[in-house]
Design goal:
Layout (H helix, E strand, L loop, with lengths): L2 E7 L8 E7 L8 H14 L21 E3 L2 E2 L21 E6 L7 E3 L2 E2 L2 H10 L20 H11 L6 H5 L6 H12 L8 H14 L10 H5 L7 H14 L1
Parallel strand pairs: 1-5
Antiparallel strand pairs: 1-2, 3-4, 3-5, 6-7
Helix pairs in contact: 2-5, 2-6, 3-5, 5-6, 5-8, 6-8
């Protein structure tokens, strides 16, 4: 395939930034989206030009690093995939593809397509832990009675990889889906109930301090989430927050 790429280029956080056009030819439909960007960067480097900066790590849909906004959608036009799992067969020969960083006040651009998502780390640091003593007197997990339904829901919430697609997809740049997943994975299990009240209060307060917006209730976050994190987690977080407030 021969493609036209319109890519956001921004030297640093202070730079105004702009869209720049590039051409890439002979792209295999079996390539991943990041492979295609590697081809472009190889061309740019051979010409002595600055390569396009973008985040990536595992390239297996696990780490959540490959945060690209492609043709107006977080991680592109496919569903339940990260950008590294998006294949070029989702596009057609001659297509023009718009590639931008995730846009949010709490995700400032570092360079080009790379954004600073350390705000997510600070939210998790605010409450994403348990104080159960695990040094020398641990119980076997199978000895702790947990209803299977609760265990399954906790596991589903724990699949969140913190990529930020929910924030990028929300008109208010809300992090409610991410925070609710982190709250839920502990709230549903016995080990997480000790800090339950402090956890939800601290994490929600930190989310607000980071500058994320309020939930829009449109469900765009769930649609674009590569792991299919359910909106039910937001409802659970709201209940936990209400209980903690009382």
């Amino acid at each position: 395939m021969n493609l036209t790429l319109k890519i956001w280029r921004q030297t640093n956080a202070q730079d105004k930034g702009k869209m720049v056009d590039y051409k890439v030819d002979d792209i295999s439909p079996d390539m991943s989206f990041l492979d295609m960007l590697d081809v472009l960067n190889d061309q740019l480097i051979r010409k002595g030009e600055d390569a396009v900066a973008f985040d990536h790590d595992c390239r297996e849909g696990i780490c959540g690093m490959c945060s690209l906004y492609i043709n107006g959608e977080a991680h592109g036009p496919d569903r339940r995939v990260t950008t590294c799992q998006l294949h070029m067969r989702m596009f057609k020969d001659g297509d023009t593809i718009f590639i931008e960083p995730f846009r949010a006040k709490a995700f400032p651009v570092i360079k080009d397509l790379v954004v600073d998502r350390s705000s997510f780390d600070r939210i998790q640091h605010a409450g994403g832990f348990i104080s159960v003593n695990t040094s020398g007197n641990t119980q076997d997990a199978n000895n702790i009675p947990v209803p299977k339904h609760d265990a399954d829901r906790a596991f589903d919430a724990a699949t969140c990889i913190g990529c930020g697609a929910c924030v990028a997809s929300c008109k208010n740049s809300s992090a409610m889906l991410f925070v609710s997943a982190k709250v839920s994975q502990f709230a549903l299990l016995p080990q997480g109930k000790i800090e339950a009240a402090d956890r939800v209060m601290n994490m929600v307060n930190q989310m607000d301090e980071e500058g994320f917006g309020n939930c829009t209730n449109t469900g765009a976050c769930e649609v674009e989430c590569p792991k299919g994190i359910s909106l039910e987690n937001i409802a659970r977080m709201n209940r936990e927050y209400l209980k903690a407030s009382i």
